Write a sequence for this structure.
């Protein structure tokens, strides 16, 4: 009998694309398993995302800026959830995604207009060209962009709020269901609505995360049978005219999914506190241990909860 599935192992990869356009495009392409493109193609693609208001994708690059502390009242009055800000040594430090700008480019409130114009002025020119300019005004606060390296020199209670890390996790859909409950993160997940696993690029098979307990006595054959039946049913539904978004009803929880997560270091620490505990779901713990170990190796985070527990 032809195998209708293949086992794969979980993985975690740090997303280190420095260019915001290329990173946003890479994360968005992950949802549909589109091959990487060149920068000019990515620029046009991100422009289409913005035009179509598909703004969840632009959350996956965090910009940082510093300006006069006199801006504090405007930031407080604007009170937008997509901006993190602090005052340190007479400067206001702000971290933000493009979403806050795109959703408020035409704001009429004076506080919002001052904040948005300040954030826009700190962006690279290539990105400014993608942002609607109606309703804009000159920034009164003369902002300057900040790098991650500059932020890392600030006290840890500030830097961990502002510095963000993005990871591409390969895990099963049961784990992704748990992780997307963390509301202070941004997510982009492989789409079973649009990914047709009968295509050659998926090797005409569904990919399954090999369960941790696969080698326990008597379980291998049971798992193999269940996943073969699920794959057979999925491909039969497609052959009968069902769309991928309909045929996916037959897919198992163990189906492999690529999930991009972007979060502040402070939020990652909260995730580790919950998901690396011994009582956490074993599959979730398995893939997040990979993230935590990579973060420590890169020097991104100290004192990671549960990491060194036996």
């Amino acid at each position: 009998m032809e195998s209708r599935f293949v086992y794969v192992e979980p993985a975690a990869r740090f997303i280190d694309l420095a260019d915001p356009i290329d990173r946003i495009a890479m994360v968005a392409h992950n949802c549909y398993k589109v091959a990487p493109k060149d920068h000019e193609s990515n620029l046009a693609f991100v422009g289409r995302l913005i035009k179509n208001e598909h703004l969840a994708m632009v959350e996956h690059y965090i910009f940082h800026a510093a300006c006069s502390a006199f801006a504090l009242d405007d930031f407080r009055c604007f009170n937008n959830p997509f901006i993190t800000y602090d005052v340190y040594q007479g400067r206001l430090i702000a971290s933000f995604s493009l979403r806050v700008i795109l959703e408020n480019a035409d704001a009429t409130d004076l506080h919002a207009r001052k904040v948005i114009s300040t954030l826009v002025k700190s962006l690279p020119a290539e990105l400014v060209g993608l942002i609607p300019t109606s309703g804009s005004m000159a920034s009164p606060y003369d902002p300057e962009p900040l790098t991650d390296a500059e932020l890392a020199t600030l006290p840890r209670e500030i830097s961990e709020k502002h510095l963000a890390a993005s990871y591409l996790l390969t895990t099963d859909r049961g784990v992704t269901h748990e992780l997307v409950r963390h509301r202070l993160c941004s997510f982009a997940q492989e789409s079973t609505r649009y990914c047709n696993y009968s295509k050659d690029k998926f090797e005409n098979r569904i990919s399954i995360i090999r369960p941790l307990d696969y080698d326990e006595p008597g379980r291998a054959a049971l798992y193999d049978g269940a996943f073969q039946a699920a794959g057979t049913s999925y491909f039969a539904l497609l052959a009968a005219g069902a769309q991928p978004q309909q045929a996916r009803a037959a897919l198992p929880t163990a189906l492999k999914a690529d999930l991009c997560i972007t979060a502040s270091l402070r939020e990652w620490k909260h995730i580790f506190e919950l998901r690396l505990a011994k009582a956490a779901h074993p599959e979730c713990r398995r893939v997040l241990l990979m993230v935590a170990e990579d973060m420590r190796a890169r020097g991104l985070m100290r004192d990671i909860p549960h990491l060194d527990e036996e």
